[in-house]
Amino acid sequence: MTDPDGEATSSAPPDELRPLGFGEILERVFKICWSQAKTFLAIVGILIVPANLIFVAAFFVVPPELLAAMEPYSTVEPDIEPYIVRLIAAGVVALVGMLLLMLGTAAATGAAYVAAEASHAGLTITWSQALRTGMRRMFSILWIYFVTGMGLFLSFIIVLAPGLAAIVIDQNVGSILAIVFTTLAAFTVSGWLWLSWIFGAAVVMTEEERGTKALRRSYNLIKGRFWWTGGIVFTAMVIASFLGGIFTLPVAFASFTVLGDNIILDLAVRSIANVLGLLLSFPLQITALALLFVDARVVKEGLSKEQLQTEIQSSMR
User: Fold this and answer.
1) Nearest Cα to 61, choosing from 81, 82, 91, 98?
2) Closest CA to 113 of 273, 308, 259
3) For residues 111 and 91, what is the distance between their CA atoms, to the nearest angstrom?
4) What distance in Å separates the CA atoms of residue 309 and residue 297, rounded to the nearest whole number?
5) 194 with 152: CB under 8 angstroms?
6) Cβ–Cβ contacts within 10 Å for residue 172, how many?
7) What per-residue string of b and e applies to 36-70 under the rule 16 or more CB within 10 Å gives b?
8) Neighbours of 232 (CB within 10 A)
9) What is the residue-level pLDDT of the chain in tens, covering all 317 positions?
10) Cα torsion at 139, 140, 145, 150 (round to 10°)?
11) Helix/strand/coil (H/E/C) assignment for every residue in the chain
12) CA angle, 216 as apex, 215 and 221 as ends, to 5°?
């Protein structure tokens, strides 16, 4: 329930937080996703789904015959000139949808973090409170995404550069081995950085750090718990992919058998399946990260439930 000022209030006597085991975290993830199903449904349904549908709508503006000609294995040369106006309109719709999708995903991420952490802390908040909190900090989360993306891209290119240089200068066994080794090294370094910065959005939602400071804070929480965190993140991603695949895999199969000749229908069914899959996978992944973030603070800093409740209520103001 909430108080007269709209703040989240405790729904149960606060017990002290304690470090959770691997199975306990996964079990808690499913319990929170189930108990907060309506909140997560509202978060995804309001902030992500409409933008996703607008982006997909751009393809419906393009004539079906032109879409068919643009298929990878099509041998038909598309005549674009008669459709130039519709292609421009499709581009505008796609850009608007992409922009709204970026903003909506950032806001939804923040809102889902608040809902998951509040539930873990014994607080009850409404879906509207979660949405408002996520929207207030969506630009900070977008900045986190941008900094993280640039950091991963630059690290990948820097590590890969010697191999690329070797293969450009001389294509021999040594240069081939060099490009293979540097490619593996680039993926390893980028993966390590990605996991080290994975709590960046959670830090933004519950603490005062922003940008590179939030990423540094994430790294300090991950340090010494890299394999533990990575194992749970990987498991959560596999489970989320499996749940999302309940809708997307049958549709992918149908597109090659039943829907292949009807491009518009195929696109419409795929869009619906992706949205339904997102409703299952998105809350699970964010909840897993939220619990790992809290668990890392419990282990390293002795975070109490009362302190966590205070931070969540402060972030909602």
Assistant:
1) 91
2) 308
3) 30
4) 14
5) yes
6) 11
7) beebbebbbebbbbebbebbbbbbebbbeebbeee
8) 21
9) 445 445 554 444 446 778 888 888 899 999 998 988 899 999 988 888 888 888 777 777 766 666 655 555 555 566 666 667 777 777 888 888 889 888 988 999 999 999 999 988 888 888 888 899 989 999 999 999 999 999 999 999 999 888 888 777 777 777 788 888 999 999 999 999 999 999 999 999 988 888 899 999 999 999 988 898 889 989 888 888 887 777 666 666 665 555 555 566 666 667 777 777 778 888 899 999 999 999 999 988 888 888 888 888 888 87
10) 100
11) CECCCCCEEECCCCCCCCCCCHHHHHHHHHHHHHHCHHHHHHHHHHHCHHHHHHHHHHHHHCCHHHHHHCCCCCCCCCCCHHHHHHHHHHHHHHHHHHHHHHHHHHHHHHHHHHHHHHHHCCEECCHHHHHHHHHHCHHHHHHHHHHHHHHHHHHHHHHHHHHHHHHHHCCCHHHHHHHHHHHHHHHHHHHHHHHHCCCHHHHHHHCCCCHHHHHHHHHHHHCCCHHHHHHHHHHHHHHHHHHHHHHHHHHHHHHHHCCCCCHHHHHHHHHHHHHHHHHHHHHHHHHHHHHHHHHHHHHHHCCCHHHHHHHHHHHCC
12) 95
What tokens appear for 154 in the block? 């630059």
Tokens 């079990």, located at residue: 27
The pair of three-digit structure tokens given for residue 241, joined into one six-digit string: 């992919």
**Tokens matching residue 120:** 């873990």
Q: Is there a contact between 47 and 104 (Cβ–Cβ < 8 Å)?
A: yes
Tokens 């891209």 sit on residue: 153
Q: How far apart are CA 298 and CA 19, in angstroms?
A: 6
> Which token pair is 20?
């959770």
CA distance linking residue 44 with residue 278, whole number of Å = 8
